[in-house]
Every structure is written in structure tokens, then in C-alpha cells.
């Protein structure tokens, strides 16, 4: 199996049908919030390898790093990952991606669904570096509530809107469009709406760092 073997340190529930995997950091693995890895495993214990991309959801990668996994009950990898207990081995390649946060500016992190992982990581990294942070998150069943609450307690602005509340999403973007470097993570329809909302609010979506999950 290609990639670097790493140990699964722990798996924990972080929301409805959502888990966070803490993985051993490989040697010379120098990743920044916003980047992603390719994870490979053989859930059936045979020669068939299943691989998926996951964006980092931890603000740092010193000894371990975290990915957030949405669990599809009918999926061929995520239910297996969710059922791990720690101590197992998976393989990773990366990091990949040019969207990065280097703890150098105030941030506005906008997330749809699974985009909350990198958004929370970027906001935490910003607060840790002494910068302001905004999180705007659209999801009917939010994940990482504890971390979002901790960010609020630390002075970050956190807005959560329902899936169908696009007017509320646009209003939140308008309210914060000038409050920092904008990052956006989510599926194509979501990030397209975010880009349009940035432009409608007087910002420049070409300057935003936007990652579509397809």
C-alpha cells in the first residue's frame, strides 16, 4: 500500500455522524491549516485499498494531527474509520493543497458541512497567534460544537445558520466581509454561493481562499 503508515491514536465523536481521527504525525510532515491528506486503508482486510482526501482539522501537527470524517452509513471507508478504537494503522500521503494559513492575519473562516474542520483549525490557529477570528458555519446538525464554544469564549465571533438559511448566510458574510482574510470550505454549491455573497457585499471573491470539496 502506498503512502506513509501512521498509527490511529484515537477516534472520537464530534457531532451527528461525524468523528475526528487523531493520527500520528509522520517524520518531516510539515502541514499548515487548510491543507489536506490522502488517506488509504483496506477496510475489508484484503488487497482492495480505499482512499479518500481529508482536510486537516487541527491547528498544529506537532506530534499528532486531526482529520474530521463525515460518516456515510453506506460508505466504503468512513464507517470503518468511525469504528476504530486506536492503535490501528492507516496510510497517508501529503500534505497537499495551496490554501494555507500561516498565523499571519485576522481570518474569516466560512464553512459548509464538512468544511467546519479546516475552518475551526484556522480560527484556532489565528487566536493562538493573537489574531482576530470569525467563523461562519452553515449546517443543520453542527459538528465540533465544543471547539466552536471554546473559540467564542476566547473572543472569536461564531455564527451558525441552518442549511436552508441562505439569506442569513449572506447577511453574516456581509457583516464580516472586511474583518480578515476570507477562507471558505465546502461543496461546490456552497462555495459558489459564498463567492457570490462576498462580491455582493463589496468584497472580492478572487482574493478569498476557497476550497471546493466537489
TrEMBL record:
Transmembrane segments: none annotated. Pfam families: FAD_binding_6. CDD domains: FNR_like. Residues 1-102 form the FAD-binding FR-type domain. InterPro entries: Cbr1-like_FAD-bd_dom, FAD-bd_FR_type, FNR_nucleotide-bd, MRET, Riboflavin_synthase-like_b-brl. One of its GO terms (molecular function) is oxidoreductase activity. This is Oxidoreductase FAD-binding domain protein. It comes from Halopiger xanaduensis (strain DSM 18323 / JCM 14033 / SH-6).
